[in-house]
Amino acid sequence: MLIGLNPILSPDLLFTLATMGHGDEIAVVDANFPGDSCGQRMIRLDGLSATAVVEAILTVMPLDDFVAEPAHAMEVVGNPDTVPEAVAEFQAIIDRTADHPVAIASLERFDFYARAREAYAIVQTGERRLYGNLILTKGVVRPSDG
């Protein structure tokens, strides 16, 4: 047990976040996502929502401020302008929790899968809402950050 850390941050997830470098990406995905077939590193957090996991991650990981779009969601198939409930919640979490809030960019479904395959790790959650998937790019941890 540690003080001051969100308990969602399991030892495996903390290790993964700590070993990621600047520019590495982590995909937090829903229960329907093909995580095992996409991921080179997989962390399972069944029973937790993707939004809760993203919120916990953003308490310890900065977003990349060297790229225009450090957060990407999967767009709705056939209706790319729709903002799913989970994505709206992701945006609210980024707005209140991230070190530098940004608008979430969207990727077409198969582009999202391809990007997730290249991610440093995939965190498979128990999220049941459709399109509850988000890719985050890790930023620099500066000396003033701790």
Automatic annotation (TrEMBL):
It catalyses: alpha-L-fucose = beta-L-fucose; beta-D-ribopyranose = beta-D-ribofuranose. InterPro entries: RbsD-like_sf, RbsD/FucU_mutarotase, RbsD_FucU. GO terms for molecular function: D-ribose pyranase activity; fucose binding; L-fucose mutarotase activity. One of its GO terms (biological process) is fucose metabolic process. It comes from Tropicimonas isoalkanivorans. This is L-fucose mutarotase. Keywords: Isomerase. Coiled coil: none annotated. Signal peptide: none annotated.
